[in-house]
C-alpha cells in the first residue's frame, strides 16, 4: 500500500503539452479520474476538441513568458510538463524548450505554491554525456526540475524510449512512408529501441499522482523487449500487409541521409536524430515495480490502429486496448 497524494477528484492540474500525442492520451485518462484540468495551449483554435471534456479549461498562454506562466498556474496544485520537440526550427530551439522552459516552470510553480511537478524527459537524457543536443538538453531540463526539490517542489520525471499507440509519431510515420515508397532506404537500421505503450506511460503518470513515494524519482520507461529499427519497420510493413524492399544504410550513408533529410518537408531525419540513435534506447531495468504493471507489447496494440485510416482510434480507452480491467 502506498502513501497517497490528495484524492484525484480534489486535484487541480495544469497540463503543458496537452495538445500533443501523449498529452491527449493523458488528458483523456485524467478526465476519467475526475481531476480538474487546466490545459495551457498556444493555439486554442486548433484544439477546440479539447474543450468538450468535462472539468477541462483550455487556457491560451505563452508558456515562455514567465509572467503568463505564473498567471496560468494560479490555483493549480500540480503541474504536468509534456512539452518537447524532436527537431529545432526557426521558431524554437532545444535550449528554449527543454532547458529554459523547465526553469521557468519551476519558478512559476514556486511562486504559485504548486507542490507537485511531473516532468517528461527521455531515455538516455544526460546533460553531460548525451550523444546529441536533443538528449543533452533533455538531461539539463531534468536536472533543473529535480533541483527544485530544495524549494519544496515534489518532482517526478519520466524517461521513456520511443512511445507507441494510436496517434503516435513513430509507427504512423513509417506507415505513411511504407505506403508510398516501394523501396525504403533506412538510416541507422541497427539502432535499438524498446517501444513503450502510451497507455503504460499514462498509467505511470497517474500512479505518480497517487503515490507520494514517487517524488524525487526519475523513471526509465520501456516496453517488454528491444528491437532494431529495421525490425520495427519490417513489423509495420507486416501489420500493413504490404511487401516493401527495406535497404539498411551503413553508417556513412546514414549520416549523409540525415544531412539531406533535415531539409525535406516534415524534417524526417536530422544529423541530431542520427546522433541520438548512436545509443541504444533500451532500459537497463524492468518496468519500475512501483507502477504495478507488466508493460504492453507492440503486438498487442499496433495492429489495432496502424492499418486503419481512421485515427479516431487515438481516443480509445487505453486499458481496453491493452486488455486491462
Ligand atoms: N513520443 C515519443 O516517442 C517520445 C519519446 C520520448 C520522450 N518524449 C517526450 O514526451 C513529450 C511528449 O511527446 P509527444 O510525442 O506527445 O510530442 P508531441 O505530440 O509533438 O507534442 C508536443 C507538445 O508540446 C507542445 N509544444 C512543442 N513545442 C512548443 C513550444 N515551443 N511552445 C509551446 N508548446 C510547445 C505542442 O504544442 P502544439 O500542439 O501547439 O504544437 C504539443 O502539445 C515530449 O517532451 C517528448 O520529448 C516523447
- CATH superfamily membership of the domain at 9-168 and 195-223 and 283-296: NAD(P)-binding Rossmann-like Domain
Residue windows where pLDDT falls under 50 for at least 5 positions? 310-325
Spatially, the strands of the biggest sheet line up as: 3-2-1-4-5-6-11
Q: How far is it from the N-terminal to the C-terminal residue, by CA?
A: 19 Å
Helix content: 25-40%
User: What's the β-strand tally?
Assistant: 13
Name of the top-level CATH class of the domain at 9-168 and 195-223 and 283-296: Alpha Beta
Contiguous helical run count:
11
SS-based class:
alpha/beta
Beta content comes to: 15-25%
Shape: globular
Present as ligands are: NADP nicotinamide-adenine-dinucleotide phosphate
CATH architectural type of the domain at 9-168 and 195-223 and 283-296 = 3-Layer(aba) Sandwich
Order of helices and strands: EHEEHEHEHEEHEEEHEEHEHHHH
Please outline the major beta sheet: 7 strands, parallel
CA-based gyration radius: 19 Å
Query: What is the typical, i.e. mean, pLDDT?
Result: 93
CATH topology name of the domain at 9-168 and 195-223 and 283-296, in short, is Rossmann fold
Gist of the model:
The chain is α/β, with parallel strands linked by helices and 325 residues long.
Record the SSE blueprint.
Blueprint: E1 12-16, H1 21-32, E2 36-41, E3 56-60, H2 66-73, E4 78-81, H3 94-111, E5 116-120, H4 133-147, E6 154-160, E7 163-164, H5 171-180, E8 183-186, E9 192-193, E10 196-197, H6 198-210, E11 218-221, E12 227-228, H7 229-240, E13 245-248, H8 251-261, H9 271-276, H10 302-306, H11 318-321
Parallel strand pairs: 1-2, 1-4, 2-3, 4-5, 5-6, 6-11, 7-10, 8-13
Antiparallel strand pairs: 9-12
